Amino acid sequence: MSKAPGSGSAPYYQQQQQEDPRWKPWMVPLILIASVAVFIVEMLINNCPAHPSPYGGCVARFLHRFSFQPLRDNPLFGPSSSTLIKLGALVWDKVVHQHQAWRLITSIWLHAGLIHLIVNMLSLLFVGIRLEQQFGFVRVGLIYLLSGFGGNVLSALFLRNGVSVGASGALFGLLGSMLSELITNWTIYSNRAAAILTLGFIIVLNLAVGTLPHVDNFAHIGGFITGFLLGFVLLPRPQFGWMHRHDLPQSSQPRSKYKPYQYVLWVVSLLILLACFTVSLVMLFKGKNGNDHCHWCHYLNCIPTSKWSCDSR
């Protein structure tokens, strides 16, 4: 099951432009509230005391029907897998053979347990608030949803067993969009090297954690790639010459608020994104196994060692 990026704060890039407009964030807090509400519904429907488990008694029985599954069943303090499947978790067989493609979206809003929920929501606050303040809810909301979808598509292509839930792909998409936004707006940032090194470290660290057992790194990678490409499309900033055009004589007015390389990145990224989605979805609904076309890709999701096995994934 998916886990979120680490709770370390995303780097805050100091802009040279002091007139940068900021929106008051409301979408990110709304996503947080919705995710908490969905988790409450999960526990309400799960009703552990009414469904005895072979793994032992419910945890925190004083919560009555909101008590958690036995830790041997779910160590993240949450519901059973059957409850998650009932509510829309990502299951390859149901998506491909039972035509339940909606699970590629609904699974983004489900969480496997209280720990899973807290880690994901802290990551969302650290990453999402800054992006929504600077770019507004529409663009950040699109990146969040499409990255979550892209992460689930890649996960379904390579992982045929098990149940996957969580916003990890969407959160990695926000990290990816932050990186592409930094690249495409390179000329208007100070401390560029420190910013890209810090963000790169956070991304690499969390992808490395994804190679451990029981973490769906394909959702992380798919979400990151989707968000990275969307960042070039949705998050370009007007350059200084355009912003300060009122200080220039009419004859020196810039013709465009974007640099040529920003247009190139926009077109190339959009074409690559559309091609990736088209190919991946066709492969998925034809029942193709991604591992048949990439025999080493399973190492991106789990690296076996003497301490653990990847067979149970």
From TrEMBL:
Pfam families: Rhomboid. GO terms for biological process: proteolysis. Residues 99-236 form the Peptidase S54 rhomboid domain. Its EC number is 3.4.21.105. GO terms for molecular function: serine-type endopeptidase activity. Its main location: membrane. Keywords: Hydrolase, Membrane, Protease, Serine protease, Transmembrane, Transmembrane helix. One of its GO terms (cellular component) is membrane. It catalyses: Cleaves type-1 transmembrane domains using a catalytic dyad composed of serine and histidine that are contributed by different transmembrane domains. The chain crosses the membrane at residues 26-45, 108-129, 141-159, 165-186, 193-212, 218-235, 263-285. It comes from the Eukaryota. It is a multi-pass membrane protein. It is found in: Membrane. Belongs to the peptidase S54 family. Serine protease involved in intramembrane proteolysis. This is RHOMBOID-like protein.
